[in-house]
Amino acid sequence: MNKTDTSDRGTLLTRPRNHARAVGRESLPAGVSAKDCRPTTTHYLAVPSVIALRDVSKIYQRGAQVVKALDGINLTVPERGMVALVGASGSGKSSLLHVIGAMDRPTAGEVIVAGQSLSARSEASLTSFRRQTVGFVFQSFNLIPNLDALENVMLPMEFNGVARDARRRRAKELLSRVGLAQRLNHKPRELSGGEQQRVAIARALANDPPLILADEPTGNLDSKTGQMIYELLKEIATERTVIVVTHAEPLAQLADRIVYIKDGRLTSHDESAAPHDPPLNQERSKPYV
Amino acid sequence: MVVVVLLSIVTGFLALMVQASFASRAQVSGMEGRIRTLIELREAGAFGTGGFGGDKPVGEEHFSVDTLQAVLRTPSARHLARVDEYVYKPEVDPSKKNAYAMVIGLHPGAALRAIGEVDYENARIVAGRSLAAEDENANVAIVGRLYAEQRLGLADPSALEGVERHIVFNKQSFRVIGIYTTANDFGDNHVFIPIAAFRETFNPGKKLSKIFVTVDSVANVERVVADLKSIPEADVVTAPESVSTARVTLGTLAVASTYAAVLLFAIGAVLTVFVMILSTRERICEIGTLKALGASNREVVLQFLSEAFTMSALGGAGALLLAAPLTAVVGRVLGVPMEFDRDVVLLILVGSMVFAALGSIYPVIRGLRLSPVEAMRRTA
What we know:
The structure holds two protein chains of two kinds. Chain A has helices spanning 19-22, 41-44, 93-100, 123-133, 149-159, 164-177, 193-204, 223-236, 249-252, 280-284, and strands at 49-62, 65-78, 81-86, 108-113, 116-117, 134-137, 211-215, 241-246, 257-262, 265-267. By secondary structure, chain A is an alpha/beta fold. Chain A has a six-stranded mixed beta sheet with strand order 6-7-8-3-9-10, sandwiched between helices. A four-stranded antiparallel beta sheet of chain A has the order 2-1-4-5, with helices on one face. In chain A, a hairpin with a 2-residue loop joins strand 1 and strand 2 (65-78). Chain A is globular, with a radius of gyration of 18 Å. The relative contact order of chain A is 0.19. By secondary structure, chain B is of the alpha+beta class. In chain B, the strands form two sheets. In chain B, strands 1, 2, 3, 6, 7, 8, 9, 10, 11 and 12 form a ten-stranded mixed beta sheet that branches. A two-stranded antiparallel sheet of chain B has the order 4-5. The longest helix of chain B is centred in the last third of the chain and has 42 residues, at 240-281. At the A-B interface, helix 4 and helix 5 of A face helix 7, helix 8 and helix 10 of B.
């Protein structure tokens, strides 16, 4: 496996100082039990969690049709490491990611992220939560086309009230760490897909959030570039939680844990795989310490 | 970039057309003033624009340069803003299609008052130039469009630029320096020449055909008319009903041009709003991304508003660059003297910015009502 050079990234990938306090074990909702978190149940209550979901459902109304995107999801995710959300198209994995990232509201259930309950919060409060707690990486990069790489990375810090000089300095450092020091002033259209996704990752890290949510980050990339992006995310996951939605099994294997989802429900293994295939994550499950 | 270019074009043409409307209005207003202060003197007993019925043989003429001197000696002469003398000579040639033409002598600078079917027609130069001060003693001529076509073979007035045409009257050759039109065949069948050359060529003695007097203000018209009526050889024509009709007509034109300006402004506003709505709707996904990154609604609105202002300001600058050189061209085509009016430009730029802001704010608000996920799905 090719590893990208990430030796100098450490200092920039650190979490906010108050993060440990924010994601303490006391943030677990009452009623979240080991069975919610198969197959690594036994380890979950032993480590601080950054995400705790209880009975989360999301129902869409499409005309006369009712679509259950999420159906009673119970899940906890520890405060470091990389989790791959794997499922077929339409299984609900992106919906789950959006609910965790306060991009969408659940129809029912409780969502606690970084010690903050997202239920019954105002839109402004959710905006503030997204700004400070979550970094998003999208499949189609979603960079602002009129801004260059540096300005794109500076943007979340601007929303967070960081002084111009400071955000400029940090944006340069982040872009340098993802290997784009020479591309600071390039507009997204002047960058390759892999470069754009690296800018997006730098942007996700701008406010030093404890949680990075990546929705099929390699979906628009070739396999080699996709591998590099995964390794970059894996590196980031040493200091914070990274949740990656994917249906690329080989890349999911890089994660510390794989969560399978089908028809809006978590399953213990890949039910779409052949019966004799062992669940990948059972072999890779390990304590998050 | 595309939006800025579109805004430049919309704003530029809007500025141009509103400017043209205002210029027309100013011209109509000026015409109204001139008509109300314009008095025609013709030989006593003559009628019509051609002065028919008053042609006396040389030596017996009554209406002459002496009449002109009498005008200038009237007690209210100080209220005369301008006095123009004209002398006519019919040029009848039955072998030509346009058998009846008229040669008109006048001082360079006097209005080219062509004799139309019903009334005088203001002539507009369409090729070459008009008579200038240096032509006072020259043998030069301005001919009507029909005259040029049928007697000089210039079907296209612009052909005059490349050729030299001469007309001969009484063995005197006149170089054609310009072609005019009144948009009326009858009015386009004259030849204007300097009055000095006219006298030398046709030897009309002291005879004059018309004297046009412009009074300095409407308030003094009555007094001047009363004085002019004391000149026995002249009839004073200030038909109140003509003035009244002209006023109604010109008033209608003034109102029409105001409506045109308002309509053009409204069309420009709609186009600007439309361009901004379309361009902003394309960016609903971007609104979703900004919300996902933690931008508040206020920050998103400010971001898009500042972009709208910047784009419309750039569009305004582009509009100026586009409209300024076209002003002279449009002015010439419309026959309306146009100058770039700072107030109109300012009005249009401010209007453009306001409407650009309105156009962008609507889709932004619609985008903000969506969740970030829904917004990003719109075009992503």
